Recover the amino acids of this structure.
């Protein structure tokens, strides 16, 4: 087993490099050491690379990128009872403090002191080795590949969003944005029993994929008012009176505005995508239709476990999202391809992956 820890580093905006770092050691008897096998590229990784910050999180020192990872346990702390060396796992990349009010209320994704991989100042998982608490590592069934394991992270995001949307059997749901998270929201909504699932995007290829993946209907908006787009969406999708729930996975202002107008009275709106900090919002429609509006941030208790189960049972086929896998030394090219909008999910093999 290699003693070095080759890592993919963001030095500052637009500056990436590879660096040999010391292999991490276990800091707690409850921790495990993981050899990283595969890592997906998230939009947040690309945003940090391009801009060096997301909201209040600013890259001030060199930081290892990556947080969508699966790996193999190579060392366990003396108090670990649930995992052993050789276990293949999906890594939940955020560790909460476990003591603050949100944590104690069961909402650890809202932790006041979350240590989240590849969110400044914490290093990410695009490295040879990474340590994590054993209870935030999820053993993969034998028939689930490590490549699929790397997709558990964005799937858990989709699980949390769809839970926030309160999707029940027979529900109608519209998903704005057919990127990876939007597609996974469609798939989770289908697994939860939604009968009408409308994928919305401005790229025909994405809509074509969404129709083959999980959506029952697709819709391409035009450069018209939000009210006009909403009316046409409902008519073409057969949603008389509006959708039960609408998820925005785009962060685009026109999509958000259209969502509010396309919801039924008493419907649920969930904001899953991040866009501009402030937008023009149809607050009158929100009020008069008595819409429930929610945010959605990462994932909470039970979301990762359910994501693994959805993959293991075949209810969500994440393999279809994988565009390809690149070697670790080609990580920067993979980032460039993702920024250019090529493919859906590109995986980077770990430096020790042969």
């Amino acid at each position: 087993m290699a003693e070095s820890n080759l890592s993919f580093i963001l030095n500052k905006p637009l500056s990436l490099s590879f660096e040999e770092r010391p292999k991490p050691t276990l800091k707690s008897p409850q921790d495990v050491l993981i050899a990283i096998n595969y890592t997906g590229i998230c939009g947040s990784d690309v945003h940090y690379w391009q801009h060096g910050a997301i909201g209040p999180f600013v890259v001030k020192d060199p930081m290892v990128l990556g947080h969508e990872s699966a790996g193999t346990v190579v060392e366990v702390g003396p108090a670990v009872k649930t995992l052993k060396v050789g276990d293949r796992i999906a890594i939940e990349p955020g560790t909460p403090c476990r003591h603050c009010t949100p944590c104690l209320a069961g909402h650890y994704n809202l932790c006041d002191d979350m240590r989240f991989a590849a969110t400044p100042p914490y290093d990410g998982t695009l490295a040879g080795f990474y340590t994590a608490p054993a209870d935030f590592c999820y053993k993969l069934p034998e028939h689930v590949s490590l490549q699929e394991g790397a997709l558990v992270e964005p799937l858990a995001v989709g699980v949390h969003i769809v839970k926030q949307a309160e999707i029940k059997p027979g529900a109608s749901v519209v998903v704005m944005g057919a990127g990876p998270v939007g597609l996974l929201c469609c798939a989770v909504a289908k697994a939860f029993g939604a009968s009408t699932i409308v994928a919305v995007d401005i790229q025909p290829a994405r809509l074509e994929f969404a129709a083959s993946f999980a959506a029952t209907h697709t819709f391409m908006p035009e450069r018209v008012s939000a009210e006009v787009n909403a009316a046409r969406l409902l008519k073409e999708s057969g949603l008389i009176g509006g959708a039960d729930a609408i998820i925005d996975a785009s962060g685009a202002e026109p999509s958000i505005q259209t969502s509010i107008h396309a919801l039924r009275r008493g419907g649920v709106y969930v904001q899953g995508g991040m866009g501009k900090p402030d937008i023009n919002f149809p607050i009158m429609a929100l009020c008069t239709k008595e819409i429930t509006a929610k945010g959605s941030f990462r994932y909470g208790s039970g979301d990762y476990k359910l994501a693994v189960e959805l993959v293991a049972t075949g209810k969500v086929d994440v393999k279809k999202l994988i565009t390809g896998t690149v070697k670790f030394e080609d990580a920067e090219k993979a980032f460039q391809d993702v920024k250019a909008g090529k493919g859906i999910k590109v995986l980077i093999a770990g430096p020790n992956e042969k």
